[in-house]
Amino acid sequence: MERYHIQASKKVKNYPFLMGQGIWLDSEKLKPNDSVGEVLKHGTLTVGFIGLAECLKALIGSHHGETIEAQNLGLNIIGYMRKRMDEETKKTRFNYSLIATPAEGLSGRFVRMDKERYGIIEGVTDRDYYTNSFHIPVYHNISAFDKIRLEAPYHSLTNGGHISYVELDGDPCKNLDAFEKIVRCMKESGIGYGSINHPVDRDPVCGYTGIIDNECPLCHRQEDDGDTGFERIRRITGYLVGTVDRFNNAKRSEEKERVKHDCGYTMDVE
Ligand SMILES: [Zn+2]
User: Fold this and answer.
1) Ligand 1 centroid to 165 CA: how many Å?
2) Whole-prediction pTM value?
3) Ligand 1 center–CA 172 separation, angstroms
4) If I label 20, which of 97, 149, 233, 241 is the partner at 20 to 30 A Cα–Cα?
5) How far is the CA of 178 from the centre of ligand 1 (A)?
6) Rounded to the nearest whole angstrom, what is the distance from the C-alpha of residue 218 to the centroid of ligand 1?
7) How many whole angstroms from 198 Cα to the centroid of ligand 1?
């Protein structure tokens, strides 16, 4: 609300594109020196969270990828947060919502602060990052389907936005059947926004894009022929990158610890 009040004190002329060009609903009725407060009420005020997995680990010793007990507690916690947003919406008539954030900067900063304050706690502060929103930790071995079915219920609770990732090994074009099964499972489980990550490689010398093992299928050069290696495209918090050099240490170590998700069932989540 404080953030809203700061922004609401601005005038139309401070947002020449968004307000001056009538992008925001009702802004076309305003003059350059009018306040944008009323128009900004059409926007949303979101509260985001990271590290549900670490929170559960701290509270009961397991995260929601490990026990049903943790999953139920996780749903209670996030459900409570959503309820709090709905109450505030009702009370103030502002669009409060709950968002599942990747928190690129915070994911490293919060864990550094907690390490200083509480020391190293296994499964909680012993890594360089906190887990993205309600995600099952990237280092936890779990099948693609179990991950989807465990994360899906959080999608309906996070009305400000959410995403679930599945990490696949190898070339999905060679296993379209499994790929389709994953997409259907996402749909049936209620995943609002799902993503399947798989390796994409590129040879900057000849331009070939696809899966490159040791040898480029197009020009048949090897990775260590010449000075130019192959680019290994990976997805970090929504960005597709050929190298993780420009990301902060937290996100880099998260990427390093990711495990691939196989397409079998390993855990009963009914
Ligand atoms: Zn090539």
Assistant:
1) 30
2) 0.84
3) 20
4) 97
5) 28
6) 5
7) 20
pLDDT < 50: residue spans in the chain: 266-270
Compute the distance from residue 174 Cα to the ligand 1 centre, in Å. Answer: 20
Handedness of CA 159, 165, 171, 177 (dihedral sign): negative
d(C-alpha 209, C-alpha 217), whole Å: 10
CA–centroid distance, 255 to ligand 1, in Å, is: 26
Sign, Cα dihedral of 216, 220, 222, 228 = negative
What's the gap in Å between 230 CA and the centre of ligand 1? 9
Within a 13 Å sphere around the CA of 250, how many CA atoms are in the beta-carbon half? Answer: 18
Q: What is the pLDDT of residues 48-72, one digit of tens each?
A: 999 999 999 999 999 999 999 999 9
Calculate how far, in angstroms, residue 253's C-alpha sits from the geometric centre of ligand 1: 29
The rounded distance, in Å, linking the Cα atoms of 120 and 24 is 47
Cβ 100 vs Cβ 158: under 8 Å = yes
> In whole angstroms, what is the distance from residue 108 CA to residue 117 CA?
15
- Give the model confidence (pLDDT) of 192-238 as tens digits: 999 998 878 889 899 998 888 889 999 999 988 888 888 887 776 66
d(CA 238, CA 193): 12
Longest Cα pair distance anywhere in the chain, in angstroms? Answer: 66
- What distance in angstroms lies between residue 195's CA and the mean position of ligand 1's atoms? 28
Contact 214, 71 (CB under 8 A): no
